[in-house]
Amino acid sequence: MSTFDLLAQGLIAALQWQNLLYALIGVTLGTAVGVLPGIGPALTVALLLPVTYKLDPAGSLIMFAGIYYGGMYGGSTTSILLNTPGESASIVTALEGNKMARQGRGGPALATAAIGSFIAGLLATIGLAFIAPWVVRFALSFGPADYFALMVLAFVTVSAAFGDSALRGLTALFIGLGLGLIGIDLQTGQTRLAFGIPDLLDGIEVTTLAVALFAIGETLKTSSDPAQINTQFTAIKGSVWMTLEDWRRSWASWLRGTVIGFPIGAMPAGGADVASFLSYSAEKSFSKKPEEFGHGAIEGVAGPEAANNASAAGTLVPLLTLGLPTTATAAIMLAGFQQFGLQPGPLLFTNNAPLVWALIASLLVANLMLLVLNLPLIGVWVRLLTIPKPWLYGGILVFATLGTLGANGAMSTGFGPVRISFELVLLLAFGVLGYILRRFDYPIAPVVVGLILGPMAEQQLRRALAISQGDVGILLASPVSMVLYAAAAAAIIIPLIMRLRGKGAVLGQLASDED
Amino acid sequence: MNTGNSGNMRRPDGAALVIAAILAGIAVVIFWQTSLMRVPPVQQRVGPTVFPYVVATGLVFLAIGTAVSAFRNGFPARSKDDFRPIVWIVGGLVAQILLLSTAGFSIATGVLFGFTAKGFGRGPLWKTIPAGAVFAFIVWFIFAKGLQLSLPTGVLERLLTTGSFQ
Amino acid sequence: MNKLLVAALITGALSAPAFAADYSIVAPAGPGGGWDQTARTMQEALTTEGISGNVQVTNVPGAGGTIGLAQFVNQENGNPNALIVGGYVMVGAILTNVSPVSLADVTPIARLTGEAVGVVVPASSDIQTMDDLVARLKDNTGAVSWAGGSAGGADHITAGLIAKAIGVDPTQVNYIAYSGGGEALAAILGGQVTVGVSGVSEFASQIEAGELRLLAVSTDTRVPGFDAPTLQEAGVDTAVQNWRMIAAAPGLTDEQVAAITADIKAMAESDTWQTALETRGWVDTYLDGEAFEAQLEADTSATEAILRDIGLVE
């Protein structure tokens, strides 16, 4: 049977009314839980997976697909409206999205996120159905040296894209890199910078840092800044929908985001966060209006949102074709498959074809349902901004602490009967850090970027050099890494040339000032 | 630099100098802690100490850069922040951390909610804390009972779900 | 939308029978992992079989289970209702993390399941048998790169034990640690490393599809369903099993320990538990009482010795 027939059969199965109902419930639950600040897709899926166990395998997988996409999508809503991303993949969405929301353009920002997610999800799911075997072969060909080159590219492009002061951007990045050093070193099992605190052995949780810097830091800054405390945001200025101009600026970003997100999601050491960082820097360099970046450029929402959704579908490529869980969410999904005695792996497509195609079809259905459900709700979501600040920020802190406790609730330290959650202490400390960074005009995102990319870059470099037994030549041995380094070099050199040509006069002026 | 030109001299930015000192301090701590590490034999090529040294070196340069920037007044103007709300909100978070294990999620989080509202100028606490506790209990019930999330249980949670104090 | 969620959840919560709390199980790992699944499967078996009215599972993740263990020891002393899931990984983690508490501070009840560590190579590799691998290791130990889970875990220990058994220097084992099973498996399939070591079930579907070749399994008996010798049969005189266990709080009376052991034994023999083992592909290696204590002690001292030999512990 051809792939088309199998997909058609899957669609017929997914479009049965009870399966549509399961998809609807899944999407609703996923969005409702995923939208809460502090509760990202991994925790959403882990929490809601047991709800699906009571159904038959097909119904369960379909509801599950809805939860997965719903959870991914839900995260961007609070990112855009409240500047409180619940997880690392929607951090860059907050950069431009929240600026848009503050200008009363939260509606178009949410719309471009929703439509971009839909298009990316659609294309990536089709990619999953038709080109998964090739994508996975490409992803597997990446060795540690190639990953290291990818990290170098990410560092170069990302640090070029953040903020207007190189000093403050780099300082923020190095704070993140420093935090990334904490904990047990994976390669040797030796403890670094844990100061004898057992809770630091596993390192700093990215979610805790992100939620603290954004949600807590934002709350502290808003409450104390006289300019912010008294501003009442207008929820809607102009149209709640995207204008023709918005469409024109968004469509290419959606496609670029998909092209970046899908393969990176499929890579065993990639992930939605890396994809969203790269997409953001790509959008900034492709944009015709780069000066709008940092002040609410719609491309900066459209691209990364498409990228993180495409990456979510990309994660399913190694999971379904090889049984490789490459993210926390995928590992939880694997547990879900095993519940039905299904072992994802090279033989899954041959042994359980109807079920796999029903799952792929239901991803398409869930994706569409998400769009249908969310577009009309945008008008409701933007009214979140009209909730009086005391209740809104009180609620944000309740959910931020709930998510932190739920994901990492150990209370192993304390005195007498009073036990203390160390993770909440970290949340508080990083929240204060977030306030200080805001007060002195440091960009926030590079801290989280450093914490995510730093350990990845280190591990990949050390793996590469261990495999080569210390031969540095391995770093440049593959064509993939050569291409990536070339791209990184181009990202540094091209803007320099442009600046020299375009602003030669200005630079000359500056040089003469520096006597 | 225009250091020779006294007309351009302003007082150095004290807060920025403190930041430079903190960055340098972090670098020193990383150098010191890493120097104490034991490196297992096979990993000596690029061992677990290389990256910490690289990061600490970077921080030293950034500390110098920040100090230079402080003398040149390179930091953007800062808003006049009111610190009282921060004290309330941080106090709320501290209270929640201390109360969680004994009073349970709802009461501790209710205090956090009330203090935060107070920070944003809404009171009185005797109204907002119970309101927050009710809200936190509903959330606790959904997540701890409905979704089996591990959240600290206290007197209020036990009383309302099992009808007893134990 | 939220109303729907609340309604669905409340119905779910209220439909659970309201017995008095019986057992609370600590899973010293995040939701979704192996220990969490063990705890939640136990929860299901204990309640379905009517052994316990109400079972709570609490996740306390961190540092190979040592965070959860420390919290358990500190808070549950003398509590006959408290249980904690653990495993072989904890034995190594306690040593490498210099944990203040150890398995000697809890009351081990029984070993529940166990898994063999499999030694695999990609199908395209010219290493055909364990003998080939041994020859390569003896020729140049460092040139053989091993991919597996985190340093000091069961996978790393297996690699070290193999080196020690064939008489090469365990400190020269070129072990590349990966953070998750998926990442290690990708490196093996992509031919980035020479050989892979991980739980056999993680390799099962690739072995079946002919993408990986299983050279040997680490347990002292063969694993049903896999056509591979044990390490001992292949001429490498060593054995290790990655087991999961259940332990109770410290400071219990003999009667309390006996009562808990009886409950766990009844659960382990129940249909619900056995069916769950089958669907999840876990191997029943139930062992309790003195036999389990002796095995635990032997494992602890053997692990300490090999971690010293690899150079991870001073």
Q: Would you kindly provide a written description of the structure presented here, covering whatever features stand out?
A:
- A two-stranded antiparallel ribbon of chain A has the order 1-2. A two-stranded antiparallel ribbon of chain A has the order 3-4.
- Chain A has helices at 3-14, 17-34, 41-52, 57-82, 91-102, 106-140, 144-161, 166-181, 206-224, 226-229, 244-266, 272-286, 299-322, 328-339, 348-351, 353-381, 389-407, 422-439, 445-467, 479-502, 504-513; strands spanning 183-184, 191-192, 413-415, 418-420.
- Chain A has 21 helices and 4 strands.
- Chain B folds into 2 domains: 14-71; 83-162, no CATH class.
- Chain B is 66% helix and 0% strand.
- Chain B contains 6 helices and no strands.
- Chain B has helices at residues 14-35, 50-71, 84-103, 105-119, 125-146, 155-162.
- Chain B starts with 13 loop residues before the first helix and ends with a helix.
- Chain C has 314 residues and is an alpha/beta fold.
- Chain C has 2 domains: 3-114 and 243-309, 3-Layer(aba) Sandwich (D-Maltodextrin-Binding Protein, domain 2); 115-217, D-Maltodextrin-Binding Protein, domain 2 (3-Layer(aba) Sandwich), CATH 3.40.190.
- Chain C is built from 11 helices and 10 strands.
- In chain C, strands 1, 2, 3, 4, 5, 6, 7, 8, 9 and 10 form a 10-stranded mixed beta sheet that branches.
- The chains are: A mainly alpha (515), B mainly alpha (166), C alpha/beta (314).
- The interface between A and B is large, with 73 and 78 residues.
How many beta strands in the DSSP annotation of chain C?
Answer: 10
Poorly predicted runs of 5 or more residues of chain B: 1-8
Q: Which bin fits the share of residues in helices of chain B?
A: 55-70%
The string of secondary-structure elements of chain C, in order, is: HEHEHEHEHEHEHEHEEHHEH
Whole-number mean pLDDT of chain B: 84
Sequence-ordered SSE layout with sheet pairings:
The complex is a heterotrimer of chains A (515), B (166) and C (314).
Chain A: H1 3-14, H2 17-34, H3 41-52, H4 57-82, H5 91-102, H6 106-140, H7 144-161, H8 166-181, E1 183-184, E2 191-192, H9 206-224, H10 226-229, H11 244-266, H12 272-286, H13 299-322, H14 328-339, H15 348-351, H16 353-381, H17 389-407, E3 413-415, E4 418-420, H18 422-439, H19 445-467, H20 479-502, H21 504-513
Antiparallel strand pairs in A: 1-2, 3-4
Helix pairs in contact in A: 1-16, 2-3, 2-4, 2-16, 3-4, 3-14, 4-5, 4-6, 4-13, 4-16, 5-6, 5-13, 6-11, 6-13, 6-16, 7-12, 7-19, 7-20, 8-19, 9-17, 9-18, 11-12, 11-13, 12-13
Chain B: H1 14-35, H2 50-71, H3 84-103, H4 105-119, H5 125-146, H6 155-162
Helix pairs in contact in B: 1-2, 3-4, 4-5
Chain C: H1 2-14, E1 21-27, H2 34-48, E2 54-59, H3 66-75, E3 82-87, H4 88-96, E4 107-122, H5 130-139, E5 145-148, H6 154-165, E6 174-177, H7 181-189, E7 195-199, H8 200-208, E8 212-217, E9 241-248, H9 254-269, H10 271-280, E10 283-288, H11 289-310
Parallel strand pairs in C: 1-2, 1-3, 5-6, 5-7
Antiparallel strand pairs in C: 3-9, 4-7, 4-8, 4-9, 4-10
Helix pairs in contact in C: 2-10, 4-11, 6-11
